[in-house]
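Note to self: keep these together.
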Amino acid sequence: MGGAPSTPVSDQSWLDEAVAALRKPDKAWCDEDRVSFVVAARELTAWLHDRRPYEGRHRPGWRSALRDFFQAAGDLGPEVTRSLGGELPRCRSIAQDLQSKITALSPVSFKALLATQSNAYRTAFQGLIGRFSDADVRLAAWNDVLAGYRTSVVSHQELAKRRDLFLAVIRAANLSPDRIASNLRGVLSNNAFEIFATRRALGDADAARSDAYPRPNQSANLGESERLSLCERLLTQSPQRAHYVVWVVFQHASMTRMVQTVGPITFYDAELIKSLLQAKEDVLERLPEELRDKESFFQPSQLPEERDTVLARVDLGMSSFADPVLAAREQAEAVVALAGFRFGRPRWRILQGYLLAVDGRIRGMGAFMPLRDPDSLPVSASSDPMSDLLQMVEADLAPHLPVDNPELIELIEALHTWQKTDREEPLSSIILHMRIVELVAARVTHGAWYEFLDDYLCSTWVRDKILDMLHSAVFDAAYGHIEGLSSAQEQERRDIQLALFKSTGYGHEIDLAKAYEALPRLVSMHPPQSQSGRELRHVMNLLSSPASIVTLRDDLLDRWDIARERLQRIRNALAHGGPVDVDGAKTVHGFARQLAAWSLSRSLAGILKRNGVVDEHTRRRDEANSWFAAVPNAADAKSAIFPN
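Structure:
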C-alpha cells in the first residue's frame, strides 16, 4: 500500500479540530469496551469497600478490576499524570501489591490482608477519586487534549482517549459536559455571543439587559491566546454563591391541581403559567419573580407548545453549585420517581431544556426539546428492510413452519428477549444478554459460559473489530466534509463512493476489499490535522503489513480478555450482590449484546439449515480460528485481512 503524501490538500487550524472534538459530548470516541481511568478507579474502590468476606471465588473479579485499573492508568495523558501528583503513584503501588498477593496468598491469607490494610487502601483511593473534581486536574485533562491537536503526529486513537477522559473528569466534577463543551466550542470558535456569555458568567461583563448581547453569528475577533485563556478560566472557575432556581419541564404529564408543592419543588400546570405570562399587570404578581422580569431575554414562546406538560420550579436556595441545572434535574426526577413508584413506572418524562435563574433573574436557558420515539415514526417502503429480510429467510424458514420444534421455539423466545433489551437499562439488559449466552453455551459445550465465549467467539470478535475499523474510517472519509478539494478531487471521491458503496434504501453495503485498496487515495484528500485525516493514517498504519496486522490482532486479543473478564465480573456481581458501577457496566453493555446476538444467530442457522446447533458453532469457530492463525504467514497485508 502506498504512503500518504506529506503535503495536505488544505491547512486547517488545530483549534478547528479541538472544536470538532467537543461536539456530541455524550458520545464517546473510544470503543465502548474501553474503560476510562475515572471509572476504573471508582470500580476498584468499590471492590475495596465490598462488604462480603473475601473468598476464593472472588479472585477473578478482583483480578479484572485491577487489570482495568492498570490499563486505564496507562491511557492517561502526561499532564493528567503529573497533576495527580502523589495520589496516583500511591494507588498504583497498592494495586501492584494487591495484584501480586492475590495470586501468591491463599484465600484465607488474602482475606486477612484485606482486614488489616483495607482502611488504608480505601483512604488512598478515595483521595485519588476526590482529585477528579479538582480544577487543576480538569485543566490538565484539557491541556492534554489541546497538546494532541497542536501536532499532526498524535493518532486519532490517542486523541480519543484524551478527549473521553476530559469529558469523564467533567462529569466526575458534577459539571454538565453538554454545557461545558458548548461554552468551550463557542469560545474557541470566536463566537461573540458565546464569549460575552462566558465573560458574564466569569464576572467580566454586565448582562443586565438582553440588548447587551452581541448578535449570534458575530465574531469576537479575539486572538488564539485570549481564547485559550478564557477557556482556562472557564474550566477553573469556582462555583458562584447565589440563590439558584431552575425550571425544568416534564412531558406526558398532567395534574388535577394547578399547583403542587413538594418541599423546594413546585409543579405547575404549563397552561396556567402560559396564561399568566400573557395576562395583565396585576395578575403577573402571582408568578415567581424570575418570570416577571421585563428585561429578561426569556420569552413565553420559548416554553414547549405540546399539551400535557408540567413545569417544575426547583428552588436550590442560597448556595454554590458546580452545575445547578444538573442538581435540579436530578432532584425533580427523583421526586417524580419516588411519587410514582407505588404505581409502577411513572409516565412523566423530563425534557432536555431548562431555565436558570440566579438571584431572581434568568441567566441561562436551554431549548425545551420534545421527546421523540424513533420507533413510532412512520416508515416508508423504501426505508423499511423487512421485505428484503423476509425474502432472505424464506428458503430456510418455510420448511419449519408452523414452528413446532421445541429447540427452535426456545431460541425464538430468546430472540424476543434480545430484541426487547434494546430499551432496557444496562444492568438489567446485561443479565438478559448473559442468560441467552448461557442458554446457548449449555447446548454447545459442557464448559462454563465464559469458556464458550473464549473458544467459539473470540477470534470472530477480533476479526470483526478489524473490519469494522476499516469500514468506519473509509465511510467517514468518503462522505465527510473536506475543505479545499479541487473539482478533479471531488470527482475522484465521487468515483470512490460509487465503487465502494451500494445503497439499500435503509442502509448501505460496502466492498471492504476495495475499501482497503482505496485507503491511500482517501488519505491524500484529508489534511493530517483533521479527525478523518488522523483516523485514516492510523488505520492505514495498523493495516500496512502482515506484521502490523499481527500486532493489531494481538492487541485486540488483549482487549477481548479484559472486556470478557469485566463482563464476567459484572455478571457475577449482579447475580450475587457484588460491587457494580453503572458506568462500568455500560462499557460491556454493547459487548454482551453482540455476543448474545452471535450466539443466537449461529444457533438459529444451525437449526434452519439442518446442520445442527453444535456443528454450526463449530464450523464458524474453525473458520475464524483459521483466519487468526494464518495472518502471520500471509503474503501481504490485503491477503492477511481477506484470505480468500
